[in-house]
Structure formats: C-alpha cells, structure tokens
Amino acid sequence: MKKIIFQTILAFAPFLLFSQENISSPTFIQTCIKNHQCYSISNSSYLFYDETKSSFYLKVDFSKFEIGIDSIDDWLKDLEETSLLFKAPMDPSHFSGLANHNHKTIKLNGQVFLNGIWHNQSVELNLYMTENGLLNQNNNQNNFDLYKVNFILNILPKEFNIHKKPHHLKKSIVIGVTLGRINQLKPGMIPFLGEAYNH
Fold it and tell me: Can you say how many angstroms the Cα of residue 117 is from the centroid of all Cα atoms in its chain?
C-alpha cells in the first residue's frame, strides 16, 4: 500500500511543483454568437520568458473557463478540448530601463497555435514593473515575475477550423491578459508548453 501511495505522489509531483512555482494570470475570453455577447474570465493562463531563446510564451487552458452552469458554459464546449499557445521572440533589453509607474509598449510578432494549426499573430504588449521591481532589478536579480503585462489577442475561428464545431463560432474571439505575471521558464517546465517550445 505504501508503495502505491509513493508511486502516486511521484506521478503527480511535477504538476504540484509546477503549480507551486508558477504564477497564473487573469485572462478573459469573449466572442459574439447570434448578437449575444459571450464572456468568461479565469485565472488560468500562464506566461513564460525563456532566456535561452529570448522568447515569450502564453498558454491558455480553455477548459478552466467553465463555471459549471450549462447555459453559460455551452459555447465553451467548442474550445474545451484544446489549449491556445502563443510564442514570440522578445529581446531581453525590453526588461531594462523601466521604473515604477512607467511602462513600455512592445510589438511582438509571433504565432498562435490552436486546434492543431499555427497562424502568424502580432500583439501589442504593455510591460511595466511592480512596486518592488526596481529594487530587485538594481540587485541584479532576473525575476521576471516582478513585471506585469497587459495584451489582447484576436483570433478568427475559421483560421483554426473552430467554425466547424457544433456552435459554429464565426466572430472574432478576443483573449485578453490583464495584470499578467511572467514566469521564468525552467527546463522542467518545457513539457508544459508542448509543441510551442520547439516549433
């Protein structure tokens, strides 16, 4: 019995470690179906910065946006079996020269992966530092979670073959990250990004 418990702990250890080490970001998704606005918000997306590749990543798990009320969650069924991934090159110099209450607007030219399909996507990312960020930056610490970001992605269901699913989503799906926190990507976290990391 003890052996089974130990094996179970080992199996789930990477997931527990991941959730303890990484900070999720508030994210909303919104679209329009037959003139009705559909909207959901969840604290279930993750942002990463990989110093070795100078790359920025976003992963959104759509299944986390369901709240358990069928009439509200219904439209999310077309998205729940997939995750959205966004990756873009981001020069590390963008993290320098920021002071409290200042921000930078950075254009990132990247790609979105959804439903097995890649598409080019550009976003304007607002980057700013938290209150304690300047002190830590002066101490030469590379704590990316001391920065916050805001940005919006607009995706068209047809480009990712989502329009063929039961609800026939046609209008643009808006995905917004507000007060997002960046996690430093470590080797043990790479599997979480899946195909996006090596694409």
Answer: 17
What does the alpha-carbon distance between residue 123 and residue 132 come to, in Å, rounded to a whole number? 27
Q: Is 43 exposed, middle or buried (0-12, 13-18, 19+ CB in 10 A)?
A: exposed
* Residue 113, phi then psi, degrees to nearest 5: -120, 120
178: nearest Cα among 68, 36, 25, 61: 25
β-pair type (173-184, 147-155): antiparallel
We find that the CATH architecture of domain 24-198 is Beta Barrel (2.40)
Neighbours of 82 (CB within 10 A): 17
Extended beta strands in 90-189, E state: 103-114, 117-129, 147-155, 173-184
Q: For 51-97, what is each residue's pLDDT tens digit?
A: 999 999 999 987 777 666 555 566 666 666 678 899 999 999 998 87
CB 23 within 8 A of CB 161: no
Q: Any bridge partners for residue 181, and if so which?
A: 148
Look at residue 122 in the predicted model and tell me its pLDDT.
96
- Domain ranges, ordered by start, for the chain: 24-198
Tell me if 86 sits within 8 A of 121, measured CB to CB: yes
pTM for this prediction:
0.81
Cα-Cα-Cα-Cα dihedral of 94, 98, 101, 104, to 10°? -30
